[in-house]
Structure formats: structure tokens, C-alpha cells
Prior knowledge:
There is one protein chain. By secondary structure, this protein is of the alpha+beta class. 49% of the residues lie in helices and 20% in strands. The protein is built from 14 helices and 9 strands. The chain has helices at 2-9, 11-15, 30-44, 151-158, 174-189, 195-218, 221-240, 249-256, 260-269, 274-291, 300-306, 312-323, 327-340, 349-359, and strands at 20-24, 49-52, 60-67, 70-83, 98-106, 108-113, 116-121, 125-129, 135-150. Strands 1, 2, 3, 4, 5, 6, 7, 8 and 9 form a 9-stranded antiparallel β-sheet that branches.
Amino acid sequence: MREAEVAAHDKTVHKTDVMQTIFTTDEVHSRDRFRQWRDVCEDRLVPMAQSCLGEDPFDAVIEGTSIGSLQFTKFSLSNLRASTTTQTLRHENHKTDQLFMSMVLSGAVHSEQYDRSSTDNIGDFSIRDTNRTWTIEHKGYSEVLAIQIPRGWLEAMLGSTRRFAGLTVGGHLPTATLARSFVSNLLNVGDRLSPQEAERMTAVAIDLVAASLAERLALDTPKALHGTLVLQRAKAHIAENLGDPDLGPTQVAAAAGVSLRRLQALFREDGRNVAAHIWERRLEKAARYLSDPGCLHIRLGEVAYRCGFVDQAHFSRRFRDRYGVSPRDYRHAALTRTRSEPDPPYPSASAAQSASTAFT
Length: 360
């Protein structure tokens, strides 16, 4: 019922006269169809690795138009798998400053990006991030409307594309219904708008798309909150077990009650790496020991052991890489500063490093 209502609501997109035929396999010999299709796609969208999923001759139609600053492309095709790869992302024709909104008009499209996997049905739409690999599959016949959107437009309203790329925005959501209706009507009158009117109307369209994405993101709030709590548990476990030389991502994931892959994804979203976070906390703990006059009696080897380093040489190497001085020089500089400036008693790492430089 839902798909029938969406299809009826979107019928204007299918019959609009604004779209001009850019490519059709009807006019190409069967042996050349797929190659020419790929060439047009590379120019219209981005370079992609593509393959046919069926045995039948490849059939497809590409229609397109531009309204204001937006480029609209309608793809009608069957049984195709397409993906961007690390190689295609380096292609000279790649559009790094653009995002693509993909709205399903007919059939279904399976997609994957940013560890998100979903199937978009009629009326649904999602955003493809051109700077990261993605995969789409058209099994059976489908029609898709792709809208090329300047990256900065959406990121200015919603933040990093990583937050929303690859998420399916259900066609049943209220703001998605409004966005879809507006785009359909815009395509029907686009050729009658003045350039100024076209720019204003495309800006409204993007505002509605952003509102739809915001509505979709709001549905994940409980999940996001859970991820925050997992991250907090993981960081607390790391802080409490820095002296364990076996502390690593796998142990932390088990303590937090999630898979290693999930833990790594949560740390990436936080702009960190699990293993790097562990080493950073170990080095910070060591710096506190070395800055504390009350710990002057603790030998460097014992400091290394208490902070989870397997030996003093490894500790010294890591510490120098992080602070630019050896643990011994760091302690000397920090304690000298403490004696000359008793308040505050514990200098920061940067202050101690500066003081150490003055001694050399």
C-alpha cells in the first residue's frame, strides 16, 4: 500500500517533459552498449567499476536536465552492480566537491557505504559521499533520480557527510514526502523559471532534503546514545587498566560488550583509533608520574611497568616520539620547573618540554 501511494504521488517525475534523453541503448549495437553506458555515467556522475548481473543484453536509458545550480539525472536500467573504488576515487574526472542524492522512482536499489547497508524502495532516497567508496546493485528493473548537490550545502546544515551518507530516508517520512513532491513539481516547471527563480527554488529543494535527513537522523538518537555510553565504558576500562601490558582493542571490546568492529567504528566516529588512544593514555600517565615530585623515588623502569610498557627501551622510544625528549630529561625539566615555580605543582607536558629545551 505504501509503495502504491508513493508511486502515484511521484508519477509526475516519470512523465516530465523537462528531462532530455542523454543516452539510450536502443540506438547502440548490443556489443557496444555497456561500454558506452560506462562512458556516459563517468561523465554524468563519477567514475565507477560496473558489471552486469544478468545474461540478457544490457538495456538502459539516461535522461537529464539542470535547474539552477542542481543537475538532475534519471537512470532507467536493469541488473547492474556499480561501485566506486580506491582506484576510481583517484580518477581525474572524480567529483570530490559534490554529493549525490539517489531517489528510487521504481523497483529497488541495494546500497552500501560507511558500514551501512540498506535497500531503498520506491520513494526512498539516500546520499552518496563521493569521497568514500560505495556500492549499489539494481536487481531487476529500476528507475532512479540522481541529484548532484554541492557538498558544502548539506554539510553547512548537517555537519560531516559521514553522519548521513548511506542512510536510507524512508519515503513515508513527512519531510521526505514534502521533499519528493517539491522535486517532482520543480522538474515539471523548471524550464519555465527564470535563472533567479531557479536558484531560489533549488535552494528550497535542498532545505527540504536537509530537513528530511535531519528527521531521519533523529530516529537514530537512541542508537547514538547507546554508542556514546559504549564509548564511555570503553574509555573507562582503558583508564583503569593502563598497567596491563595485554590491554588492547580486543580486550576493550569484550569489556564494553560490543564487537571489535563496532568498537573501532565508534572510535572512528569520535575521530580516534582504539590502539592509538590506549598508547596516548599510557604516555600521559607516565608523564604525570615523571612530573610528580612525590614519585621521584620511582625508577624509570618501574614507571614504564606501571604504565603497561613491556620494557624500558620501548617506553623511552614511545615517550620521545610523543614529547620530543627522553623520560629522564622530561622528569628533570618538570621537577626543575616545580622547584622554581611552586604554583602550580605539576607542569603540563608542553611546559616541561619547553623547560627541557632550555637545558640543551
